[in-house]
Amino acid sequence: MSEQLQFLKMNGLGNEFIVIDARKTMPQLGPDAVRALSDHASGPGCDQFITLEVPQSGGDVFMRIHNADGGEVEACGNATRCVGRLIMTELGADKAVIETVVGKLISYRGDALEMVTVDMGVPKFGWQDIPLAEEFDDTRAIELQIGPIDDPILHTPSVVNIGNPHAIFWVQNDVESYGLEVNGPMLENHMIFPERANISLAQVHNDGELTLKVWERGVGLTQACGTAACAAAVAAHRNRLTERKVLVHLPGGDIVIEWREADDHILMSGGTELEYAGEIDLSDLSWQKMSLIQQKSDQGTEQSSL
């Protein structure tokens, strides 16, 4: 008899997630299964595979994150907003505390059902915290470039850790003009990043707006990356390119990032989407869509969760 596993397909600005509830029973899903289910050809497809587990230190849920390549990662801002929506709905609350392997994140309900804000905590700038393979006194700009030494295509990125390592290259022209699909894999795996890194191209338009394109480690080009948006906004302010609150344009949509001056916490606000519910047959990893587990009532609230 085959074992069935229910899941939700969600996205935050096109950043896709498969979400399963493992608080009662932990399914046996190794890296090969995660890769197969994350692949759009063989499974529902996603950028990150999210497992909701029993909280370990007083939070409302523990969120475990695997990238599409099957590797576990520390943080995902858009996934945190999607999970925050689910847990706030489940609790009937306007706030949820989400535990991760790097600490607790707090989500808040926005003005509309799908709008969620997450406090992503305090960024880390020390070279050993990012981490980098060698010491740099100033991580606002490190020595790294792609292309001819006298005319590099990309150079001097800012680096920061927002739960995971990020490198942001500042570009003057359209972010589509720099071949990130070619240079991204090389930069992600550069020896300077012992844990690999998320690579972003950022074009600053004014002191409150920038456009971002992201190559996410273990995923590739993505429609949106919440921690990359946080990293770019923080790095832009550190380099005196923007104010502390920035509208970030991503291929999947816009997100607002505020690096709060009072306590240096980063607030990320944007939309979430519940696409559909589904069921996975664990015997062969076949899957099918089901009717949505969550529905909106006439009052605009969701009545049930996973």
From TrEMBL:
Keyword Cytoplasm appears in the UniProt entry: yes
EC numbers for this chain: 5.1.1.7
Principal subcellular localization: cytoplasm
Keyword annotations: Amino-acid biosynthesis, Cytoplasm, Isomerase, Lysine biosynthesis
Pathway(s) of this molecule: Amino-acid biosynthesis; L-lysine biosynthesis via DAP pathway; DL-2,6-diaminopimelate from LL-2,6-diaminopimelate: step 1/1
Protein origin, superkingdom: Bacteria
InterPro entries with a match to the protein in the record: DAP_epimerase_AS (IPR018510), DAP_epimerase_DapF (IPR001653)
Pfam families: DAP_epimerase (PF01678)
Active-site feature positions: C76, C225
GO cellular component entries: cytosol
A biological process from GO: lysine biosynthetic process via diaminopimelate
HAMAP family in UniProt: DAP_epimerase
Subunit note: Homodimer.
The protein, known as: Diaminopimelate epimerase
Natural source organism: Cohaesibacter gelatinilyticus
Gene it is expressed from: dapF
